[in-house]
Amino acid sequence: MIDHLPILQVIVPLLAAPICLILREAQLVRWFTLIASVFAFVISVLLLQQVQAHGTLIYSLGGWDAPIGIEYRIDQLNAYLLILVTSISSVALLAAGTSLQKELTERKETYFYVAYLLCLAGLLGILTTGDAFNVFVFLEISSLASYTLIAMGRDRRSLWASYQYLIMGTIGATFILIGIGMMYMMTGTLNMYDLAERLPEVQQTKTVFTAFAFFMVGVCLKLALFPLHLWLPNAYAYAPSIATVFLAATATKVAIYVLLRFIFSVYGFEFSFSHLPLKEILVALGLMGIFAASIVAIYQNNIKRLFAYSSVAQIGYMILGLGIGSKTGLVATLLHLFNHALMKGAIFLALAGVVYRVGSVNIKAFAGLGKQMPWTMGAIVVGGLSLIGVPLTVGFVSKWYLVLALLESNWWPIAILVLVGSLLAVIYVWRLVEAAYFRPALQDSAPYKEAPLMILIPTWILVLANIYFGIDTSFTVGLSEQISASLFGVAK
Amino acid sequence: MNFLEQYNYWIVIVLMMSGFYIVIAHGNLIKKLIGLTVFQTSVFIMYISMSKVIGGTAPILNEAYKVYSNPLPHVLILTAIVVGVATTSLGLALAVRIKEAYGSVEEDVIQEKDLQQEGSQE
Amino acid sequence: MTFLKNSVSLLLNQQTIKRELLRSTVIEITINVILLALLTLTAISLAFTKDLFASVMLMGVYSLLSASFFVLMDAVDVAFTEAAVGAGISTILMLTVLAMAGRFENRALHHPRIALFVVIGTGIMLVFGTFDMPAFGDINAPVQTHVAPHYIQQSGAEIDIPNIVTSVLASYRGFDTFGEVVVVFTAVIGVLALLEMKSEEVRNSVAPAPMYQHKILRIVGKILIPPIMLFALYVQFHGEYGPGGGFQAGVIFSAAIILHAILFGVETTAKAISLPFVKVLAALGVLIYGSVGIVAMLNGGRFLEYNALAENAITGQHVGIIVIELGVGITVATAMMVIFLTFARRVGKSNGESA
């Protein structure tokens, strides 16, 4: 069975989805979904072991070797992200049963879980495949499922947010399709590694250049890079809490993976960074994203939307790291992928607890919650500190590497800007802390109870992970450095 | 002469861009989806154009023919058509729910109502 | 006319092309030019009309024209699908939604200048990209010389079915097709999650009047439904030899059911086909496809490696392809039925609320 791990990674959640529809009973489906997700997590851990022991794993689907058929190809980068996605998915599902009771009617719960599994399978499919067109197919599976998840929010604005996301997402996917088509036109192949071999021959052509541009714009729409982020804040703000946890922590990360894979493994570092002003573009957009989104976040009264804008800013940090174009810069990006998932996972899960008890995430509703819901608010505070980048949290580790990379390249003015950006995070996190701890509770309502255990436990799993990986960085930093070295190694 | 070589692709670009224009310029949610369909269908035309071999025939093996057009883009576009209709139906379902919730399928009316709602909450 | 001369002189340069081939090629190119001109006309008039009903019709026309274009480009399977899906299913879904959302766009365009600017910029970028593209129809283009020749030359020996598109779709790139089936399934879940109504809501709703009272429609429709279903089965099982396969068959089969619903009312049809059961079938189709892959794994092959399904590799391929096509057909047919009926029922809800 060990041989089949790469495909099992995807088909376990993929086949669990239709089975869930047949099972129908919400209770049953809930457990089944959780088991499928945990199983996927176990597979991803085994995969990482296999990759560390034997190097890149290749699995030819249908027994047809690439480029004739489609192949799955898993190296450290894939395995790293697979672990990230499946672990966050499993933790979020722990809280799903309780949280959804308040946010969905029972009849729709089954559909929620089916869509969730399909979204998970779609993301995992993107992460495992070595075929450019297969990326498009699984991208659409995950996208369609996430539009559904978002539209299931209680507020009618979730519908509008989902529609906007659908339009932007489909434009992005169509751009990606145009890009893949032009690459295929010039090389005759769809396999990423075959493409990497055949592209250098034609890399001076205008067609390949256009293909690269369209593919990148399409992916950047998906990963909500400033200024293509407009769909994200409302989508995260009005989706059911569990959907927000899952999507905020994973979906944009997978899009960044696609970006990295095509920049480094398909086009090659040299083409991407030497022939094009990609470095300047990425750094500029990253910085603009950090500042614009952080400033907008400060003025938000809806706390879910506040942290959604903060996500756009954090994507800016990741893109900035990539834009530096050095090994350390890439390490910073890879670290922040993982760390940001932990922070936002913890924060949005805690907010799920607030929604469960209070029913609102407006900043006014937070008055006095610091005393009434100490564990929930504690989680948000730790997550917030991590966002700011305080030592002993994961946020510090990734910021440290980012600043290190900037200083290595003698880009100290930008390093200063990054630190100023962190100060903006202090402001928006402080607004929340001030409301929760220093304002008296509203008189007219009975005090709220602490969030239910089934939400608190997964929240604190992620909070402790924030602290653990902030102190013991051997796993994340070690792996990121290996990945970064191998990505640059391939390129040179 | 060159004109003929790239003629198909240039027309395809005009088609794609009319679809793209409808998506971003029109405010009616259903019209946007129509634009999206046109945009995607035009990309299909690009793929199918590249598969064609002049003097070739449909890729169904037959002893009478030797030259076949490339079957691979056909397969890709079959998949893409299905993806397209799936997206359209989901988009339409959202439009129906939006109509029920907001009483309109016009972008600016919806945004106005959202602003009012946010204003009244604060 | 100068254009025709150009095309003839271009072809004369390629001396390898025989005379009779030349004549047919000129005809092909002429039709190509006309079709593309019509497509452009349709797309541009779409941008200007404010009548959504007209827009939907134009969209259907656009689909049919592109289907004709695909035939010209030798992509018969794609043409078949585009005609069934683009001109058929999409159009009818759009019309159903128009019944709820109203017929006219009543607002001005949004920042038409900025939109035009973005669109023209994107277009210029794309035109820039065409300058180094291989010439249209060139047999030496990279797409014709790498990977594709394997399918054309070897699929006869490796899979042994005449339709190469089916070979690639079902076997060489069978996993993409699996993904495609899952996409359809995802759409079903999305539509159900958004639009499915509780049973009491269904009871309170006023279903749109069926066309039962139109005698000619009813009789012609009744006569048509069985042959449509029969044709769907033919397309399903003939996909290995000619254009067709599970996807097209599924769409055609669902068309018969949709026709039934239009003639006899949504609720009659929903009862006749038992909607909850049909939902299960949609899931089952995906599982059938997946289980072929798993059986192959249990037999010592890779996922979807049909060679492992039987003693003889070719037999294995045939068995695998027939079963997965069946899975595709089931999921697509039931998915389209569920999606259409869910939309149509919802029309009844808005009727019920206004009544």
TrEMBL record, chain A:
Q: Which Pfam families match?
A: Proton_antipo_M (PF00361)
Q: Where in the cell is it found?
A: Cell membrane; Membrane
**Residues of the NADH:quinone oxidoreductase/Mrp antiporter transmembrane domain:** 131-424
Provide the topology term for how it sits in the membrane.
Multi-pass membrane protein
Q: Which InterPro entries match?
A: CPA3_Na-H_Antiporter_D, ND/Mrp_TM
Q: Where is the signal peptide?
A: none
Membrane listed as a keyword: yes
The UniProt similarity line reads: Belongs to the CPA3 antiporters (TC 2.A.63) subunit D family.
State what protein this is by name.
Monovalent cation/H+ antiporter subunit D family protein
Tell me the organism's taxonomic lineage.
Answer: Bacteria, Pseudomonadati, Pseudomonadota, Gammaproteobacteria, Kangiellales
UniProtKB/TrEMBL annotation, chain B:
Q: Where are the transmembrane segments?
A: 6-26, 33-55, 75-96
Cell location: Cell membrane
The record's keywords, sorted A to Z, are:
Cell membrane, Membrane, Transmembrane, Transmembrane helix
Question: Per its record, how is this protein called by name?
Answer: Cation:proton antiporter subunit C
Give membrane topology per the record: Multi-pass membrane protein
What family is reported?
Belongs to the CPA3 antiporters (TC 2.A.63) subunit C family.
Q: Does the keyword Endoplasmic reticulum apply?
A: no
One Pfam family cited in the UniProt record for this chain: Oxidored_q2
Q: Which InterPro entries match?
A: CPA3_antiporter_subunitC (IPR050601), NUOK/Mnh_C1-like (IPR039428)
What organism does the UniProt record list as the source? Kangiella aquimarina
UniProtKB/TrEMBL annotation, chain C:
MrpA C-terminal/MbhD domain location is 37-99
UniProt cross-references to InterPro entries, sorted A to Z: CPA3_antiporter_subunitB, MnhB, MrpA_C/MbhD, MrpA_C/MbhE
Taxonomy of origin reads: Bacteria, Pseudomonadati, Pseudomonadota, Gammaproteobacteria, Kangiellales
Its protein name is DUF4040 domain-containing protein
Q: Which residues form the Na+/H+ antiporter MnhB subunit-related protein domain?
A: 216-337
Q: Does the keyword Membrane apply?
A: yes
Q: Which residues cross the membrane?
A: 29-49, 56-73, 79-102, 114-131, 177-195, 216-235, 247-266, 278-298, 318-344
Q: Which family does it belong to?
A: Belongs to the CPA3 antiporters (TC 2.A.63) subunit B family.
Q: State whether keyword Transmembrane helix applies.
A: yes
Keyword terms, alphabetized: Cell membrane, Membrane, Transmembrane, Transmembrane helix
Domain named MrpA C-terminal/MbhE is located at 135-196
Subcellular location(s) of the protein: Cell membrane
The membrane-topology field of this record reads: Multi-pass membrane protein
